[in-house]
Write a structure and sequence with these properties.
It is built from one helix and five strands. With 64 residues, the protein is mostly beta strands. Strands 1-3-5 form a three-stranded parallel sheet, with no helix packed on it. It is globular and about 25 Å long.
């Protein structure tokens, strides 16, 4: 799923039905990925993001 280059403010999907999700270039994005965290940790889901985005719910992501 490609959501990059937009101005989405909040994503409320669980993302668990996808293998690759790109959300880069959405500077105002807020997303809680706790429902997908186990998929991210296991490598089943690749989340492509900017480290400056408001991404919550998964300690496996390298966020500031």
């Amino acid at each position: 799923m490609y959501l990059g280059g937009n101005d989405f403010r909040k994503v409320e999907e669980s993302l668990t039905g996808f293998r690759i999700v790109e959300i880069k270039d959405n500077p105002n994005l807020m997303i809680d990925v706790s429902a997908a965290c186990n998929y991210i940790k296991s490598g089943y889901l690749l989340l492509i993001y900017d480290r400056t985005q408001a991404i919550r719910g998964c300690d496996a992501l390298d966020l500031e």
